Structures
1.
Amino acid sequence: MMKCSFCGREIEDGTGKMFVTKSAKVLYFCSRKCEKNLNRLRRKPLATRWTEDYAKEKKGGAR
């Protein structure tokens, strides 16, 4: 199983989408929503409330 490059959720085998950038970096997406937020809208996972990265940052910063 792989993790989504944007939200961090597990992607089941046979589902999702793999995107390869011009710099040969491989990105995996669980849904069109995640792909659009990262590629077209240029949003950062740390600033998007529903991602795992945001939850980790929020939890770690509230000590």
Note: The longest helix spans residues 52-61.
2.
Amino acid sequence: MIIDQDGTISIITQEKATIIELVKKLQALYPKFKKNNIIVCLSSLHKLDLQDIIEFLEISNTHRGSKQSFVIVSDKIDLDSVPDEIMVVPTIQEAYDIIEMEEMERDLGF
């Protein structure tokens, strides 16, 4: 797990461990990230299915409930099969765009 900071955005990149291990690490380290928008980059993983994405649902709901963005980056999943409660995009640039749009919505009171 590689953690980068870009202003108010924490970028977490997963390279080797399983999704379940990553989610457990995220939950353990969550107090460190809870005030930031979070991008979880899973692009380097070769195989990914819907159940892997669902593993992030609890932490995503918690984070989004506290008025912060939580975006997963992966081009290895059918985006139409992902539940609306979790944000998945195919590129890191789209993750930044989503965060920017969500911040504007929050500023406008949505």
Note: The helical segments are 19-33, 50-54, 57-65, 92-107.
